[in-house]
Amino acid sequence: MTLKHIAGATGLIMASWLPSVCHAQDKPTGVTVAATGGSLGIGPEVGFRPSPIIGVRVSATFLGLGHNVDVDDINYHGDLKLRSWGANADIYPFRNGFRLSAGFRVSSNRIDLVATPTEAVTVGQRVYTPEEIGTIEGTVRARRFAPTFTVGFAKNREKGFAWSLDAGVMLHGTPRTEDVVATGELASNPLFQEDLARERAEIEGEVDNYKVYPIVQLSVGYTF
Prior knowledge:
This protein has helices at about 5-25, 130-135, 190-205; strands at about 30-40, 40-50, 55-70, 75-90, 100-105, 110-115, 120-125, 125-130, 135-140, 145-155, 160-170, 175-180, 210-224. It is α+β, with helices and mostly antiparallel strands.
């Protein structure tokens, strides 16, 4: 085969590829910008689905909620503060919207607990008056790095309006209670400090079963 023949064959191959390349460039890239909201919080999400089979997403979520928690005789007001960011790898096994996802969250989620008893209550093993207790404060945190697993459905392949819904779990481990302190007359009393340590253990006992955090997230956005 001469150099002329090789050049001619190369030209034919390139000519045959050119329409498909141009057509591919006209297709949407699969980049989706969305707002996501649910049990992880509310925030921005960006996804990229380069093929019908695989995709990736990153998001950051924030939210604050209030909820009362009873631990034995004491009623705590809990402020749940959700602060996390993370990424997911998505697999679309049927080349449609159904997807299986695995990822992680880097979390600063916490619950700030505050209780100001108005009558005598039991702290640990002893009964104390409101003046002796004052205000009890504590913080509950889970593991900072947590893997996530979800199942969902997404409309994010074609250019235009996009949405997705995912449900699953975040494995954030056993929550731990930190910095349980009181402000009353006996705040520095050794016996009261022992009972305060028991109260901390009781709070941890209440949250010990919440090693798995449920995920339900709805995202709405636009695919470019």
